């Protein structure tokens, strides 16, 4: 769940801080595909560490820690300007923030009930749907059918009942929010300079999720070790991947970026195995392969549209 249509989160023009210069120099020394793969692994490691927090905190409280950490860190680099905004600007910014909050909350609720690879694969139907909807090619029907086959393989029929219907429902909601996130990020990019729109949205999402997170987390949120892990989750899941992906987008075609991003469900499944010991059945791996292939296919056939 990462940004697609905004500029570099560390870009503040002439006043760019020295940490931003250091990060940019380090990023410039790596090939763009390496940046994208690092971003993908960063996001999924963040999700893995967040899931480990579920033993101490409910998912809603972990979401609050992640969003609050991300908003504070990004706000230190990118301060959105509120003066001079039209009501349409406010509508886009607030809608962006609400979508971001719901996307993270529903994804973490799915993550609490499903293996990482399955949750990310189902959620990935959101950006896949956006890509297919933007195309007018008949071959895209093949990718829709392939993705549908993947979902059917993940459905908890018989021996596949390890995945719960409730978890699948939350993952579907997260995917729909991800689709909305992509569209709203593009709209925010047109209305807000640099990445101030993303910073604005993260602040809004933090305000929205705070009552839920504080209520469910309670005094446990004040434990130093949990706060430290929450800060790490915010860095791995938001700030680092946003910076890496957007730096990569400056140096590579968007269709190549989309092809690399299609590997995210497979990386999520791999991180789930290595970090959380979430070993999947052959049928579940086949489902993830179907969804990854559908994403790859829609990205390649949609190349002429980008």
TrEMBL record:
It is found in: Membrane. The lineage of its organism: Bacteria, Bacillati, Actinomycetota, Actinomycetes, Streptosporangiales. It comes from Nonomuraea antimicrobica. The chain crosses the membrane at residues 56-78, 90-108, 114-134, 141-158, 164-184, 196-214, 226-244, 256-276, 282-299. It is a multi-pass membrane protein. Belongs to the EamA transporter family. Keywords: Membrane, Transmembrane, Transmembrane helix. The keyword Membrane applies. This is DMT family transporter. Pfam families: EamA. Residues 166-297 form the EamA domain.
């Amino acid at each position: 769940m990462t940004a697609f249509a905004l500029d570099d989160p560390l870009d503040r023009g002439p006043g760019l801080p020295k940490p931003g210069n250091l990060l940019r120099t380090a990023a410039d020394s790596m090939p763009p595909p390496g940046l994208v793969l690092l971003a993908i692994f960063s996001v999924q490691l963040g999700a893995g560490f967040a899931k480990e927090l579920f033993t101490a905190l409910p998912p809603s409280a972990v979401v609050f820690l992640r969003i609050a950490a991300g908003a504070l860190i990004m706000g230190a680099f990118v301060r959105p300007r509120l003066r001079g905004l039209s009501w349409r600007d406010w509508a886009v910014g607030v809608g962006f923030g609400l979508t971001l909050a719901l996307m993270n909350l529903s994804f973490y609720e799915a993550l609490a009930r499903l293996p990482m690879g399955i949750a990310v694969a189902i959620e990935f139907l959101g950006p896949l749907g956006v890509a297919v909807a933007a195309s007018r090619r008949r071959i895209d029907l093949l990718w829709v059918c392939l993705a549908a086959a993947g979902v059917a393989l993940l459905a908890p029929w018989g021996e596949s009942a390890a995945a719960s219907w409730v978890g699948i429902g939350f993952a579907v909601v997260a995917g729909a929010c991800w689709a909305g996130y992509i569209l709203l990020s593009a709209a925010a990019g047109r209305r807000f300079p640099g990445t101030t729109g993303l910073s604005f949205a993260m602040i809004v999402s933090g305000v929205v999720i705070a009552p839920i997170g504080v209520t469910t987390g309670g005094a446990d949120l004040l434990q130093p070790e949990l706060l430290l892990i929450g800060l790490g989750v915010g860095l791995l899941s938001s700030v680092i991947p946003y910076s890496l992906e957007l730096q990569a987008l400056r140096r590579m075609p968007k269709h190549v970026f989309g092809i690399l991003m299609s590997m995210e469900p497979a990386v999520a499944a791999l991180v789930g195995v290595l970090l959380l010991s979430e070993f999947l059945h052959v049928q579940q791996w086949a489902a993830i392969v179907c969804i990854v292939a559908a994403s790859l296919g829609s990205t390649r056939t949609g190349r002429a549209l980008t």
